[in-house]
Backbone:
């Protein structure tokens, strides 16, 4: 069994050290996802789910300026501090992401981070990610737009601005999301600080073996999003939660399909962010540390036919930098 190098955290959840975090705290392998659609809908539900997650022992929280969950997350953290549920902000690992309107110019990166920090009521982030390798016109109100206005990202200057955010101590680590091997290769060519994380879709139905091998070789930690296939979301499907192979393994083991998915990720050394605002499922998703998958079970999972749940067609356009899905994913899907 291959578990990630662990370090002691304030909660029982194992944690990994990131390549550009210096002496900062390690990242708990399970993070609590806060994306729910419509974005920003029912902030009270989000806030109380986060507070409950802290009670249950989650210490890593994943937000983004897109999700409009930074404010409820900030309020939940402030509540947890006031009530003594956590001793200090340092007990938590908080990730946020730079949205595509703010990748359209390097000058927008630092103000975007400051705005996120203000919403979160924090002095620093633990991790700041470029959300997608693309830029959007920042002057447009996208709630009114039937179609996004898309541009190529100037990765050299935007990454330099990310490195400046890191140097200022406003984020302890920096990384990317939705990057292919090819895009990571390009970034590594000029980055003074290599990305700590690539946050991408990974689950038993979209295993990303080639990308994992590349990231392991380069010291970039994979953080899996949609680890359960994002059932019930417009960007997800039921392919994972209704997979026969996973169902059979789960039944034989007395576990749930969700637990099989999360344990599988853990054993191959990935971090993960999983979203549930349901108390029972939030608990269930943490209960993956004191049992193992057998070699035979892992072998069966490795044979599951592959298909990507979230091809992100919204970033593909005749007028944009990616004219086909293959171009967006560099032929890696
Ligand atoms: N970087 C990116 O581009 C990107 C993209 C997508 C997501 N993310 C991040 O990753 C997080 C997680 O991914 P996700 O939300 O897409 O998908 P996910 O965690 O794979 O799935 C969430 C769905 O599964 C349900 N669920 C959770 N635990 C369950 C369990 N034990 N049994 C049955 N159903 C369960 C949830 O419903 P209930 O809430 O009702 O339990 C929700 O409908 C997001 O919240 C976000 O923070 C990042």
Residues:
């Amino acid at each position: 069994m291959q578990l990630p190098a662990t370090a002691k955290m304030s909660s029982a959840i194992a944690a990994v050290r990131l390549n550009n975090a210096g002496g900062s705290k390690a990242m708990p392998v399970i993070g609590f996802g806060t994306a729910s659609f419509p974005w920003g809908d029912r902030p009270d539900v989000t806030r109380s789910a986060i507070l409950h997650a802290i009670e249950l022992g989650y210490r890593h929280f994943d937000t983004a300026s897109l999700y409009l969950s930074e404010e409820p997350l900030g309020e939940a953290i402030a509540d947890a501090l006031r009530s003594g549920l956590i001793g200090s902000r340092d007990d938590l690992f908080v990730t946020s992401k730079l949205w595509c309107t703010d990748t359209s110019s390097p000058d927008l990166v630092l103000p975007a981070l400051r705005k996120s920090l203000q919403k979160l009521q924090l002095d620093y982030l633990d991790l700041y990610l470029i959300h997608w390798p693309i830029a959007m016109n920042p002057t447009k109100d996208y709630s009114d737009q039937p179609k996004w206005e898309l541009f190529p990202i100037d990765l050299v200057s935007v990454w330099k601005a990310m490195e400046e955010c890191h140097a200022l101590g406003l984020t302890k680590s920096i990384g990317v999301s939705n990057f292919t091997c090819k895009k990571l290769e390009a970034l590594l060519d000029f980055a003074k600080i290599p990305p700590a994380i690539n946050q991408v879709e990974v689950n038993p139905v979209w295993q990303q073996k080639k990308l994992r091998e590349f990231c392991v070789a380069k010291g970039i930690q994979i953080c899996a999003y949609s680890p359960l296939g994002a059932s019930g979301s417009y960007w997800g499907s039921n392919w994972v939660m209704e997979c026969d192979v996973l169902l059979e393994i789960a039944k034989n083991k007395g576990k749930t399909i969700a637990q099989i998915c999360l344990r599988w990720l853990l054993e191959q050394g990935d971090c993960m962010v999983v979203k549930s605002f349901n108390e029972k499922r939030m608990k269930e998703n943490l209960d993956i540390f004191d049992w193992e998958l057998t070699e035979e079970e892992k072998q069966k999972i490795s044979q599951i036919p592959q298909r990507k749940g979230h091809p992100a067609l919204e970033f593909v356009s005749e007028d944009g930098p990616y004219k086909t899905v293959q171009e967006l994913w560099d032929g890696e899907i």
Notes: Residues 33-35, 62, 131, 177-178, 199, 225-233, 236, 256, 258, 273-278, 281, 284-285 surround NAP (CB under 6 Å). The CA atoms of residues 59 and 92 lie 5 Å apart. The longest strand covers residues 171-177. The chain is about 35% helix and 15% strand.
